[in-house]
Every structure is written in C-alpha cells, then in structure tokens.
Amino acid sequence: MNCQGLWGTSASLALRLGQAIFSTASLLFMCLDVEFYSYTAFCFLVTIMGLVIPWSLTLALMDAYSVFFKRPSRQPGVMSVIVVGDWVLSFLSLAAASSTASVTDILITSHSCRAKLCSRYQLSAAVTFLSWFLSLASSLFNLWLLPSL
Amino acid sequence: MNCQGLWGTSASLALRLGQAIFSTASLLFMCLDVEFYSYTAFCFLVTIMGLVIPWSLTLALMDAYSVFFKRPSRQPGVMSVIVVGDWVLSFLSLAAASSTASVTDILITSHSCRAKLCSRYQLSAAVTFLSWFLSLASSLFNLWLLPSL
C-alpha cells in the first residue's frame, strides 16, 4: 500500500511543509510585536506553534529522505507515535486558533488594539486554522494506514 | 465484536448521557443571563450546544433501545454517519470551549463582568471541555469498529 498522503510519500512531504510554513507564519504574525504577552490565549498560541514547527520540520525531513533515497520503513510503533503526536498537536492547534480568533474579535469590538495590530492577529488566527487543517489531514491519512500494518 | 463503549452497549449509553448532561449544563450556565448575546464566542457556544444536545439525546435513545430490547444493528452506512457526526461535533465543541475559556479570561483580566457572571462563564467552559472529551471518546470507540464491518 503506497497511496499518496501516507507517511513517506511526496504528498505527505507537501502536507508537512505546508504545516511548517503556516505555523511559522502564524508565529511571525503574532510575535513581530511583544504585545501578545499580555493575553493568555496569544501566549498559548505561541507555545503551541513552538511545538508544531519542530515536529513538522522533523517529519518533513524524514519524508524527504524516504522520498528521495529509499522506500519508507513503516514500523507499527513509529507510526503509532506519529499518529498520536499529529492528533494531539492538531487538537492543540484548533484550540489555539479558536482562542486567538475569539480574543481578536473581542479586541476589535472593544477598540482596544492599535492600528494594524488587530489585522495581524486575525491573519495569525487564519493561518493557524490552515495549519490545523493540514495536520488533521496528515493524521487521518496515517490513521488509515495503521490497521494494515 | 461487542466490547464495551461501542455503539449499542451500556457504556456507550453512559457516554451519550454524559454528553447530554454536560452540554445541557453548559447551555444553562451560559443562558441564565442574556448578556452572552454581546460576545461572538458565547453565541457560538450556545449554537454548538444547541446542536450537541439533540444529537446526543437521539443517540442515547437509540442506545437504550438496543441495550434493553435487542442486539444493535450495525450497518456500515449508519455507523459512518454516526462517526462523522461525532467527529465534527467534537471539533466544534473543542473550538467553542476554548473560545469561551479565553474570552472569559479576558473579561476577568479587564474586570468587565459583573459579580458571579464570570464564574458562571468559567463553569460553562469547563463543562463544555468535559462534553468534548466524552464526545471524542464515543467517536474513537466507533471509529475502531468501522474497519471490522
């Protein structure tokens, strides 16, 4: 079984790169200013993105290695760790994205953020949702693989 | 295969009843006052709980029927609908719970909610997290059943 999207294929590599790019973008939009430090939700987002970025970069490197050099080795133990890790990180990303979106909404309604800052927060929330979606897709693809191992 | 937690067993009935109770409690904590109407995150929570309550009550009734009267009929089509529905509702509950929690946090920090109201919002968020957790458990149990059908 080697359909696209599974661990070790080029589609999976693309998913991982997408996750890394979107989560880095989210972190940058949030951190170009130090004001995020005063809101719990934004600190949560920064923490989670700090976990997602190394995770997706590592898996992207391993995917790239198996795409370009050899067939991937899919041991059930390793696959379980990857599926559970993706799973937990996708839940955490969703929680961070929705917290950020709702706090930004409150800040906009109460006119308590400076010009351009609120739109950066909005962009950050949107990009985090994209990263959540890609991470969920990776997780579902690999979950499908588990019973066949 | 008839292990506990799967569709049509008493453990599944207990999970469904727990979901219904927690989501009703969350709705009540939020709606005893009409002030929730001014925050997008709280409106979102009320909408999602309005979807989760009838869904879990219906499935609890169907579970009770198969527990007390006959063995459950597990057709792949019906099971897929149940798994996907649980899935989507669990993501939506998580998003609603984390939005509510972060908005409540902001309100408490800025001292902009009246006495006792903030603690009600906090309770509502906590109970929504519990409902999300039970709904995720149901969904995982039933997902495990799918490949064997």
Automatic annotation (TrEMBL), chains A, B:
Major localization class: membrane
GO CC annotations on file: plasma membrane
Keyword Isomerase annotated: no
Compartments in which it is found: Cell membrane
Organism domain of life: Eukaryota
Residue ranges occupied by any Casparian strip membrane protein domain in the UniProt entry: 9-134
Keywords: Cell membrane, Membrane, Transmembrane, Transmembrane helix
Transmembrane segments: 36-57, 78-101, 121-146
Membrane topology field: Multi-pass membrane protein
Subunit structure: Homodimer and heterodimers.
Record PANTHER family: CASP-LIKE PROTEIN 5B3, CASP-LIKE PROTEIN 5C1
Family: Belongs to the Casparian strip membrane proteins (CASP) family.
Protein name: CASP-like protein
